[in-house]
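The step that takes the researchers longest sounds almost clerical: writing a folded protein down as plain text. The outcome of that step, for a single protein, is printed below.
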Amino acid sequence: MDNEENIIELVIKLMVQAEQFINKSGIERKAIVLNNIKHLLDNETYIKNYELIQSFIDFAVKVSKGKVKIDINNIKKKYCCINL
């Protein structure tokens, strides 16, 4: 599973599962996700994508808390020539 898109999907699934640990802090939940994904990926893939995984978790948390707003329509208007 070296495809970044598949890794992101896996991280999302693990984040949803970690949300069920309501007695854990955000840092503890992130550690749970990182630990689980480390066991699901081979070591080389995990190391290669570690920064992506960390950054995506932080980004997803900010989006879910409303701290980051993604306006896809606005992005398409500004960057019309890029195939999205």
Observations:
- DSSP finds four helices and no strands in the chain.
- The chain has a mean pLDDT of 85.
- The radius of gyration is 15 Å.
